[in-house]
Amino acid sequence: MAPRKLQVACSGLGRMGARHALHFLNRTPRAELVAAFTPEPSEVAWAKIHLEPSGVTICTDYNEMLRHPGLEAVVVATVTTVHAEQAIKAIQANKHVLCEKPLSTSVEISQSVVDASKTKPHLKVTCGFSRRFDTSYRDAFDRMDSDAIGRPSIFRSQTCDKLDPSGFFVEYAQFSGGIFVDCNVHDIDLALWYFGQDSIVKSVVATGITAVQPELRKYKDVDNGVGIVEFWGGKLAYFYSSRMMAAGQHDMAEIIGTEDELSINANPIGTLVEMSEPTGIRRESPPHYYGRFEQAFVTEATEFTAACLDDSKLPFKLSGAVQAVKIGCALQESLNSGKKIYFDETGRRSEKAAL
Amino acid sequence: MAPRKLQVACSGLGRMGARHALHFLNRTPRAELVAAFTPEPSEVAWAKIHLEPSGVTICTDYNEMLRHPGLEAVVVATVTTVHAEQAIKAIQANKHVLCEKPLSTSVEISQSVVDASKTKPHLKVTCGFSRRFDTSYRDAFDRMDSDAIGRPSIFRSQTCDKLDPSGFFVEYAQFSGGIFVDCNVHDIDLALWYFGQDSIVKSVVATGITAVQPELRKYKDVDNGVGIVEFWGGKLAYFYSSRMMAAGQHDMAEIIGTEDELSINANPIGTLVEMSEPTGIRRESPPHYYGRFEQAFVTEATEFTAACLDDSKLPFKLSGAVQAVKIGCALQESLNSGKKIYFDETGRRSEKAAL
Amino acid sequence: MAPRKLQVACSGLGRMGARHALHFLNRTPRAELVAAFTPEPSEVAWAKIHLEPSGVTICTDYNEMLRHPGLEAVVVATVTTVHAEQAIKAIQANKHVLCEKPLSTSVEISQSVVDASKTKPHLKVTCGFSRRFDTSYRDAFDRMDSDAIGRPSIFRSQTCDKLDPSGFFVEYAQFSGGIFVDCNVHDIDLALWYFGQDSIVKSVVATGITAVQPELRKYKDVDNGVGIVEFWGGKLAYFYSSRMMAAGQHDMAEIIGTEDELSINANPIGTLVEMSEPTGIRRESPPHYYGRFEQAFVTEATEFTAACLDDSKLPFKLSGAVQAVKIGCALQESLNSGKKIYFDETGRRSEKAAL
Amino acid sequence: MAPRKLQVACSGLGRMGARHALHFLNRTPRAELVAAFTPEPSEVAWAKIHLEPSGVTICTDYNEMLRHPGLEAVVVATVTTVHAEQAIKAIQANKHVLCEKPLSTSVEISQSVVDASKTKPHLKVTCGFSRRFDTSYRDAFDRMDSDAIGRPSIFRSQTCDKLDPSGFFVEYAQFSGGIFVDCNVHDIDLALWYFGQDSIVKSVVATGITAVQPELRKYKDVDNGVGIVEFWGGKLAYFYSSRMMAAGQHDMAEIIGTEDELSINANPIGTLVEMSEPTGIRRESPPHYYGRFEQAFVTEATEFTAACLDDSKLPFKLSGAVQAVKIGCALQESLNSGKKIYFDETGRRSEKAAL
Questions:
Q1: Domain Gfo/Idh/MocA-like oxidoreductase N-terminal, which positions (chains A, B, C, D) (predicted)?
Q2: Mutate to test the interface with C, among D144, D272, D282, D292 (most CBs of C within 10 A)
């Protein structure tokens, strides 16, 4: 008898949603994609070609999708503004949930997903911080965790997108929560992972500029931002995000300990080909986030599936996703107020700097 | 209705056989692994755990496996000595065949597989030169093919294994055809791919030493070999193979054209982590062949499946596999005779050098 | 007739002073080292062996050195606390001056050197920002200056020393001006070079930790610091300094423009040797600042000499050295107050953030 | 009293000669360039501007230069065809000699320089194998010498010039001794250094093509050559030379031992700048030999000077220069005969392969 497969549905078939759907359809051996939801006619058309022939039911109503017979788990990959609402509905319908990051751009709404999940402790509810599933970030974590670098003290991380000359991200900015929530939430999540999930923030400060899209200011956003986050206990993280990288996506991190240092993706690799030309020696870089992290998304699908089927632990706690949004929002606030923001040793806002 | 899947069987469940079986079982969406053959009790035991629960029939008789109802294609991944025999039997039974490299260490026996395949032109019969399915080698080929480097003139390629202190390869050497057939057959195949499948060899010469395993000499083999292959038309390839790399598997190639140069894997990459330590800056390297080429094997399975299902062209001709063995055997002969070997413009052996 | 040589004296024969002396003695063809000053007996002993036999007069009194017949130029390479005083005395004595960085840890005292130099416009007075003489930093500047990267917008730079387990830098900290003045003054100077010498600072903020030397707090200093400096006109620089690098000195910078990005020394190089070992592939890094910048110091000596002899322009204005100290002091102040500091469009301190 | 300086003359003021002259004039503190010889009017004109004002006597007659009062040492940097003759004359005149490589393209003539030097054992006579003075090659040697790689077994080395579209090297070929003598003599010398100066060659074989300059065949030369040199005692070297590199000069080597591997300049570095552009990440490479080895030439001058002044040992024996030419000539002969050439255990030519 063939092993049981997890019955999965995918909500949202936009750029990332379509990828998630295909991963669960073709590259997650223990899962079976049974349904997909999208209200978009163009996405429905795509699904008729790429999913329906493999037996996937296409829904234009989210609730209808949730009622699919035998459905066990839902991937929420719609626009950020409905992540939380859909995740909560799925939880209430007794489905496991893999929700794209962030849960919400609001700390309170993010927390409401955590609260909902607590009412159903048998469900697996997680947020898709893809870098947590990447071989290289994991390799670095494991080295650090086995004391290879001494006490981790400084963490630098950046999320830098290849310049999209269409300026798409300007209008997108009004719903994205701003660059520190939309982009750096990944870096913040990594800081929490590497420094310890229960690290308590001591201060945050951010500065930014609009180098290519001055109109971003109307949405209180920037296209290049730098933020510093200090944690209680002598740990410091600093972040950079940019919307204008020339060579391609460049996400990287470094973790400096009292004895050694680890870097992850300091030198981006497209293929292993190097070109020696009259202008020098050149290698290409992955152009986009997915080009860099495709395998991490597949691992995410595989491990989420295993956790649901085997009732095993997910690799990280959902509450961390709220903490990351909280820090991202504080950085965005500091960017716009021009002030450093302080927190006391319980993580509560404070008027005074503790030095 | 779900799309039709190719019914595949895997012959041989040793190190590579087990990997092929799992790739067809889990990572080749359009294929279904239905049967597997191995005479080895330990491999049968493994298959009972990893394959049988997913509905794969385990056979200890190759012919029985071939008779599996509905079977359409066979992966031959047994020891090299039976590759050709099993491939021919499968062809005779009207199965598509993906045969591990080399078809045989004998030119004549290799040719007999090609001859058999010609009697069944509707079948897809191919040899698993895994590097042909690797993204980086393909990227380099495509660049060369689109005239990025001028006229390709010099090709250097190496197959270097991490030192196996067990000396396993000594006893293995008596059946492997020697280092130029066993290891460099990959590099020779790449030379034929990059220089053109119909390139005609003009001369070959090889030299080698036994740096770590002097006992190899009893099987007329070496643990480090260098060979030069000249082709008619002003093209030159040179190869290196080694059984004693310290840092890990290091396969690499470079193709030098009249205008530019491309290298593939000159700088091996394990993960994207770099370690800064008191002894310097360090990165790890993939330890083994599979660590480097895992994804290429999956692509091989996927493309072989598509060719069988859609009756589309395979990415290369089977006759090339015979040509690669022919050159590998000539290098091994040169190693042992101490002489350069010449060929005329039709590729036939010649006593005289043409300069 | 042999060409005239610049008559130079070197004040201070400590670590850097001795190097400067030898550069002018042996590696600056158009200069002649004629005198050297040091009050330290151990340094006098060294000079007796390494300088005196080549005809260099050794003085234990600075004024005596200044009176050396024919003396034209002085290198000030003593401890920071007397840089300004000695530079001013030399100017008053009508000598050209190459003063080690920083002029002083005080903005006012730094400015007094500039003021003194203005009274003698025929003299060449400069501050030894060694990176300005480094081939790689110059190459990057030239590329940027010829519009290779669009509008430069983000500058990141770090000065990271190899961990000195002796903790020498703790006691040194009380006179060094703090990590942002002592280390990052180089990075700040580079920011002013790349963004334009007349860039006006808009805000500064800094955070830091003591990861290896908690006693630094008594001198209001840290061993790892991160600072952000925003300039009017939409430019942002951020800096990192550390006293605890494992692999060696790691100074690096990157300049991100609206079209391209340049990095300098992202991958430190000791020699061109790479070691492939069971633990991976490794290269060494220059252990110390001088290992990285030796040639830049020689170029500095050569160009300073040429400017004095030929009355040609120095590569940068002395006033920039004051601006760099001003920003460094503001970062150090922000570190200790926990507050962001604002400046108006004329560069004057302001209570309010301009957003 | 100032220390005594070695009185040096430079013969030949062509490309390399002019550089040698300037190195001894400006960058070799213990030497003094007192005379220079060239018969070329354009070179005389250059010398009038760059050397004469510093007190260097310019001669158009070699013997006149040799008679310069007080002259102690001669750098021979003329065309290869007169290297030996001038070196011998200088030896007879009791001068130390630094002769550019090769001593001659003829083994016999090369040997005559060694013979002459033996008659004057108090003189320092050496051949300018510049890579022996390069920090990176030395670093690799020292590591190997301190047993870092086990028993050195395989040596690969290449000398690849940037393509000179003028085709200058075609006419030059008739006097250069061919690519294996002109270019690979460096690599052969390195093999002798790394494997031991007394290594005895067992066989040589070479193959080559004319990829860009077919006219080279008229001088029995090629523009791309590959050679294999086997040494008695289980050591193997292989060499590549090319006249058509796109990205710049690319000399590199790797030495593979039974335990580890070292590479030198596998990744060429121009400056430490990396450019991130829409086409990828790029670094430049030194365009020419001098760009790569400038500092090695300065070290060569410095160490030659020290050996002469202090009567200390030169870093290598002159006889090695003959051995390198001997192997280079054998490779060139093999290229043209199409045959492998054998040597017995005393290094004498043999008809039969020893296996």
A1: 7-121
A2: D272
Any chain B CB within 8 A of the CB of A279?
Answer: no
CA B165 to chain centroid, in Å, comes to 23
| Residues in B touching D212 (Cβ below 8 Å) | 258
Asked if C267 and B281 come within 8 Å (Cβ–Cβ), the reply is: yes
Q: Is D45 on the interface with C (CB under 8 A)?
A: no
Query: Are the Cβ atoms of D280 and A280 closer than 8 angstroms?
Result: no
**A6-128 falls under which CATH superfamily?**
NAD(P)-binding Rossmann-like Domain (3.40.50.720)
Query: Which of B205, B260, B336 minimises the CB distance to D205?
Result: B205
Tokens of B149: 């480097």
CA distance C58 to C48: 8
Q: What is the mean pLDDT of residues B170-178?
A: 88
Q: What is the mean pLDDT of residues B278-283?
A: 94
pLDDT tens for C75-91 read 999 999 999 999 999 99
pLDDT number for residue B107 = 97
Residue of C283, C151, A41 whose CA lies nearest to B274: C283
- Report the top-level CATH class of C135-293+323-350: alpha beta
Residues of chain D contacting residue C3, judged by C-beta atoms under 8 Å apart: 53-54
Q: Calculate mean pLDDT across residues B106-115.
A: 97
Closest alpha carbon within chain D to B209: D234
Q: What percent of chain D has pLDDT over 70?
A: 99
The whole-angstrom separation of Cα D318 and Cα B33 is 68
Do B103 and B84 form a contact (C-beta atoms < 8 A)?
Answer: yes
Interchain contact, A280 vs D277, CB within 8 Å: no
CB of A337 within 8 A of CB of C353?
Answer: yes
Q: What is the pLDDT of residue B2?
A: 66
Alpha carbons C287 and C292: distance in angstroms, whole number = 8
Of 3.10.180.10, 3.10.20.540, 3.30.360.10, 3.90.1110.10, the CATH number of A132-293+323-350 is 3.30.360.10
A339 contacts C342? CB cut-off 8 A: no
Cβ within 8 Å, pair B276-A262: yes
From chain C residues 139-178, the ones with a CB under 8 A of any chain A CB are 149, 151, 153-154, 156
Segment-wise mean pLDDT, segments of 10 residues, chain A, 355 residues: 87 97 96 97 98 97 98 96 97 98 96 98 97 97 95 97 85 90 96 96 97 94 97 97 90 96 96 94 92 96 98 93 97 97 95 80
pTM to 2 decimal places: 0.95
Q: Is B262 on the interface with A (CB under 8 A)?
A: yes
Percentage of chain C modeled with pLDDT above 90: 91
Identify the pLDDT of residue B168: 79
How many other C-beta atoms are found inside a 10 Å radius of the C-beta of residue A133?
Answer: 21
pLDDT beyond 60 at C43: yes
Domain with CATH 3.40.50.720 in chain B: 6-128
Domain span(s) for CATH 3.30.360.10 in chain A: 132-293+323-350
Q: Which CATH number fits domain D134-293+323-350: 1.10.10.10, 2.40.50.140, 3.40.50.720, 3.30.360.10?
A: 3.30.360.10
- Residue range(s) occupied by CATH 3.30.360.10 in chain C: 135-293+323-350
Least confident of B43-52, C168-177, D146-155: C168-177
Which residues does D207 contact at the CB level (< 8 Å), separation at least 6? B203, B205, B228, B230, B236, D225, D226, D227, D335
What ipTM was reported for this prediction?
A: 0.94
pLDDT at C175: 87
Neighbours of B, requiring at least 3 CB pairs below 8 Å, are: A, C, D
Burial degree of B93 (CB within 10 A; 0-12, 13-18, 19+): middle
d(CA D97, CA D94): 9
Backbone angles phi and psi of D208, in degrees to 5: -160, 165
